[in-house]
Each structure stands twice: as structure tokens, then as C-alpha cells.
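Thread: Peroxisomal membrane protein 2, structure

OP (GT): Posting the sequence first so everyone is looking at the same thing. Length is 144 residues per the record. Can we get the C-alpha cells written out before standup tomorrow? I want them in the notebook alongside the other entries.
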Amino acid sequence: MMVLSVLQKGLISYNGCLASHPLVTKSCTSAVTAGLGDYLGQLISRQHTVDLCSIARYATFGLLVTGPLAHHFYLLLDHLVRPGERGAAIKRLLIERFGFAPLLLFLSFYLLSRMEYRSLFANFVALFWIMYLANKRRQAVKKD
């Protein structure tokens, strides 16, 4: 019962911050989520040491790019497609998937590689190589 009370108070406080300072709250949430995601990824991949610089890069990207960009994109989306409009959900989904998602993916590849002092070209080659190998493996499993 006490845990529920603490969680409820935390949620009320978070919602209050969202109402009073939406951009800052969303940016900080994005930073924590990105940093935690990178940390958990390192734990899952069983690295011997935790790369704090990597966690800081992802948290910085969340704070300075993902949070503000998502905040402003969804405000713009609310103006472009009114929520009560006919077919609004599918329109919003299509705009987000074909407009915002590719932009955010490109920015994450570009900016995170720059923060790691790697080239964008090397990241794309690595991505397509992984996709190629996964496809070959899937085809081999399919034949068996």
C-alpha cells in the first residue's frame, strides 16, 4: 500500500511538471530513458565494464535532440491533424512514421556517430552489413 502511495505521488508530481514545464520535463525524461536504455543494453550484452561515456552520449542526445524535437513535432502534428478529425489516427501515424521517424533515425545515426568520433558512412555500412547477414541467416534457416 505504501509503495502504491509513493508511486501515485510521483506520478502526480510528474504530471504537474509536465503541465508547468512541458519541454524541460520531456527533455529530462528522454535523457533518463536514453541513458537507462544504453546502460541496460550494456548489461544485456555482458560487457565487462560499463561505458559511462556511452551512457552520457545517449543521455545528452535525449536531452538536447529527442526531447525537444519530439515535443515540437507533436505540437505541430496537433495543428496539422486535429484529434477529432475523421481518420486522424491513421493520418497522424503515417505522418509520424514517414516524416518524423526517418528524421530522428538519421539524426541519431549522424549525431551519435559524431559524438563517438565515427563517420556516418561507417555506421551505414555496419547497419546494412548486419541486415545482409541477418537476411542470409534467415534464408538458411528457411531452407532447413
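GT: Both are above now. Quick notes for whoever picks this up: The two ends are 53 Å apart (CA to CA). The chain has one domain: 29-143.
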